[in-house]
Design brief:
alpha/beta, Glutaredoxin, 7 strands, about 35% helix, globular
Length: about 210
Amino acid sequence: MSAQTLPFKLSVIPPQWRQRLILLFVIACFVLPLAIAWLLLADNWRPSGAAQHGELLNPARPLPDLRFVPIDERPWDQTVLQGHWLMVYVGTAAQCNAPCRTSLYDMRQVRLALGKELVRVKTVLLLDGMPNAELRQWLATEHADMLTGVADAEIRNAFLQAFVEAEQGSGWIYLVDPLGNLLMRYPTTVKPGGMLKDLKRLLRLSKIG
């Protein structure tokens, strides 16, 4: 960004403040759209004919870094998650029952339905241990694009314990914004079309991620 694009004349500002103001202006250009999107949701803003289909966490809660060990145990670059919207399911290694499989399917289909915007969204499955060979094979076949790994209790509990006034445990699809804040969750019974509408609205309002 050049100095000419700023809404004021730098020539009247002391040199030692110019770089600071330019930096603050750049940060504002990225952060403000996301902040506005979150505030509109928190204030129950709805465009005509729209409704919020998930349970909003108010205020949004910053999450710890999403560290996990991929189930194929290959090294991976954690930065691939940074700057993306995330749909996260927290499950168990013992099994992926019908609600679990339905949720993973819905997450995949919602992401695909975003069309060209799907590059802004990633799907993540966090488990409490290494799954057996059968489950690993099923995940590799059905959800090859999903980031799946084993996360420690701190990471999993950051999701499971965030909504203290509601039912605990797994069985929820969580939405994380590009700044790493837990924003919403959806029950496994959510209609995918409703989740898609919410996500499209957030992507439209936010230019981050």
